[in-house]
Amino acid sequence: MNISIIGTGYVGLVSGVCLAExxxxxxxxxxxxxxxxSLKKGExxxxxxxxxxxxxxxxxxxxxxxxxxxxxxxxxxNAVFIAVGTPPDFEGNADLQYVMxxxxxxxxxxxQYLVVVTKSTVPVGTSLKVKKIIQNELKKRRVEVPFDxxxxxxxxxxxxxxxxxxKPDRIIIGVETKSAENVMRKIYKPxxxxxxxILTMDIASSEMTKYTANAxxxxxxxxxxxxxxxxxxxxxxxxxxxxxxxxDPRIGNKFIYPGTGYGGxxxxxxxxxxxxTARDYDYSLDVLNAVEEVNNRQKTVxxxxxxxxxxxxxxxxxxxxxxxxxxxxxxxxxxxxALVVIKELLKMGAKINVYDPIAMDSSKGVLCGKxxxxxxxxxxxxxxxxxxxxxxxxxxxxxNFNTIGKLLKNKLVFDGRNMYDxxxxxxxxxxxxxxxxxxxxxxxxxxxxxxxxxxxxxQNA
Length: 461
Description:
The chain folds into two domains: 2-201, Rossmann fold; 203-461, NAD(P)-binding Rossmann-like Domain (Rossmann fold, 3-Layer(aba) Sandwich). It has helices spanning 10-21, 33-40, 51-60, 70-73, 97-109, 126-141, 161-166, 178-187, 189-193, 203-234, 238-246, 267-280, 286-298, 301-309, 337-347, 360-363, 377-381, 401-407, 422-427, 452-459; strands spanning 2-6, 25-29, 64-67, 79-82, 114-118, 147-151, 171-175, 198-201, 318-322, 351-355, 371-373, 386-389, 412-415, 431-433. Helix 10 crosses helix 12, helix 10 packs across helix 13 and helix 12 runs antiparallel to helix 13 (286-298). It is elongated. Residues 449-461 have low confidence and may be disordered. By secondary structure, the chain is α/β, with parallel strands linked by helices.
């Protein structure tokens, strides 16, 4: 089969490479000619473990190619996947201009039956809009070419996307016709052989499933962060609470780790889009409104702990910051809590020594001020007044605390990911402030105490 993937961003590139890995002939399309030329050379524009290796292998074996021409990619094509970006606009809507532009181009060049698949995360009803645009373009050309539309949302975790695609929990397919279903089942046949279920449904339900899944996960994160903050106030330990509820099979242990809030390209955008969709139908998703509010507040918890500890005397202090990416194993800094923390510390006159294994280059166009980008985690601690941990990279799990204690001016750690045992840190002589398990607490740690917070978070959207 011949497949075309339009859009070589995160979803499009991972999808194209992994479909080629199963033996399909895949053409990836992008309007960015520089990106296409780089991909032809085997240069991957994003960091994702395993992606470069599979891309080079399939390019070498002529199963994977790259072009800037949608027209060329549709020749002898059985299915075309639309995988362009759908960023949020100022009202929280998913911006569909790129999806609609692609639909227009498909309509201009469609010459044989194919299935047009929306892989981008799109609001309910988008696939039908794509269908209408293609029909209008065919009408302008005064030709009748049969085609079907389908929805095939992605469920990829950044940092684990290759494994997620090749070994999915489930494959969701939304279709209108049996012909479209047959094509989609043929594409995903290798995954069925491995026992992964294909769930076929109507298109609207498929589109809704994607948003609902991300909204549910975001809800679990915000709920646990809210509980963590309450644990501090009442003297409970959120680690114990988490284990206590996580062993309940009705709840499970996934996405119940407290921290500094969720970020990335999916959860913030999809929560906003689902809230906006409900508003368009005169319905209020009160739970999700609270989820978003809690997440915005949680991104300020570390800031407030730092402010309260130093009595707002932050100017000219130096902070070692470990972690920029919104999560480990990615260079994605979109909506990253680290950006909120660093920008506020800089605003108050602090100096920042920062280290991230992957994401430092990504942040250099976003952050400015008294920032030193360090070559390793220990260099960042040199003469810093405190260590602030924001991303839970594996290499931060077992550092040499004797070395850290000697490098820091004060044996003081603010941990936004609860990476270490509180008793161990205390026994080593560190003051250790984490999330939801400090014996000494301050109610102001959980308040948005400056007008900066909401504005800054919007700037990072």
